[in-house]
Amino acid sequence: MPLVAHKSLPTYERLEQEGHVVLSPERARTQDIRGLHVGLLNMMPDAALAATERQFFRLVSSSNTISQFYMHPFTLPEIPRSERAQQHIDQYYESVEEIQSAGLDALIISGANVTEPDLAAEVFWEPLIKMIDWASSNVTSTLCSCLASHAVLQFRHGQKRNQLPTKKWGVYRHRVVDSSHPLVHDINTVMDVPHSRFNVVSREQFTAAGLHVLVEGDEPGVQLAVSADGFNIVFFQGHPEYDKISLLKEYKREVGLYIDGRRSSYPPYPDHYFDRHTKALLEEYRLQLESARQHNRKMPSFPEHQVTNRLDNTWHDSGESVVGNWVGQVYQLTHSDRKLPLMDGIDPADPLQWLARRESVKMGETASLDVVETLL
Questions:
Q1: Which of 239, 250, 254, 316 is catalytic?
Q2: Catalytic residue among 241, 250, 254, 320
């Protein structure tokens, strides 16, 4: 779906250069179609602020080539920022008050930099709760990424995330476990999704919270789930928005921490991400690095270019399909007035009528079993 460049945000120019469809406001007004207003609550740290914009804008834009999107990036003022990042926010972002005053059709909430063992102790905790509460009553659907999902499960359902023995990062295989939901309609039954986290909320916790799990994997656990009503909140534990190089950048950063003495051990490879040739290349680099450290020589350059050429993106198409289905359902449900979450006549307890259809199918299956037992 095309983006509408209604602000001078540099991300629009960058995405247009990459081949994404970006419309000027003048051209958008000539199309006889209602644009969808999507908020992006960007809580990522300064270094990842613009990259996160591009990743989510890219994912939304590529999910459909017909409809128009007005993207509304904003952040929480309680999150400390550098002077440069704050200038970017002041110039291109909207305030929370502006977002709530104008309204949204849909909302995406990014992850964030965590510094405390308990999410409730983070500076963004209270304002994030208020934003999610507002969105639940005023926005058709909210898509929560990773940490935002963990936050909702903790404050709304009393399900705290659990720390993993080691960091879970890499690209993992998942399977659709409930194909009846519109979010997973006509997508691959098996899909890859990147993960990068130290914590997890288990399938048992999602179920205890009354949520519906749609996609999960043996290694990383639940990837996609929805709220009890089927659509008001969508939960991701992974990062389908990641670029091909996102995990490489993270690996390079960990190597840098080791070089600077801020990490005691050399970082392991992200799971299922590098091929054998790439691992051999990176092992050769590690040996050169260790030799340079030992003999007090200049550190070798990280072979980023050589590695990048061998990376594959095996997850974007599935993530794009899920987001496309999400956007499509928002279009079908949202009110013509973006300050109102649902069209007249939509049941907020079952907006997709998915719960009713599931119950009908179950009743049909029960009736069929009764007939079989009677015949036997």
A1: 239
A2: 241
